[in-house]
Amino acid sequence: MSDLFWLTDEQMAKLAPFFPKSHGKPRVDDKRVLSGIIFINRNGLRWRDAPATYGPHKTLYSRWKRWSEKGIFARMMVGLAAECGEEKTVMIDAT
């Protein structure tokens, strides 16, 4: 598939400080796994429908679940937003 999503090295460098430290056995490539998680979420796919290029779907799901429970993704979003330096309140009126 030529339309697969891949994070760039520059993007991964910005996200690297938010990843948990590896203990013992080295983790599977974070870039591949995170790109797969983003691809699945962006396209609304089931984990088992992940392209094989991103690795086993069980790895994608378990990493997503573990990092979600630890608040890794939330810290990434807060950290990336803080880099912008611009505080803004966005309000949506649904009436």
List strands and helices in order, with pairings.
Layout: H1 9-15, H2 30-43, H3 57-70, H4 72-84
Helix pairs in contact: 2-3
Beta content: under 5%
How many extended strands?
Answer: 0
Q: Point out poorly predicted stretches.
A: none
Order of helices and strands: HHHH
Q: Count up the domains.
A: 1
Structural class, please? mainly alpha
- First-last Cα distance: 42 Å
Instruction: Report the C-alpha radius of gyration, rounded.
Output: 15 Å
| Shape estimate | globular
User: Sheet bearing the most strands, described?
Assistant: none
Helicity range of the residues? 40-55%
Give the rounded overall mean pLDDT: 88
Give the assembly state of these chains. single chain
Enumerate how many helices there are, as a single number: 4
Question: How would you describe the overall organization of this protein?
Answer:
The protein has one domain (9-84). It has 4 helices and no strands. The chain has helices spanning 9-15, 30-43, 57-70, 72-84. Helix 2 packs across helix 3 (57-70). The termini are far apart. The model has no long low-confidence stretch (mean pLDDT 88).
Task: Provide a concise account of the structure shown.
This protein is an all-alpha fold and 95 residues long. It is 51% helix and 0% strand.
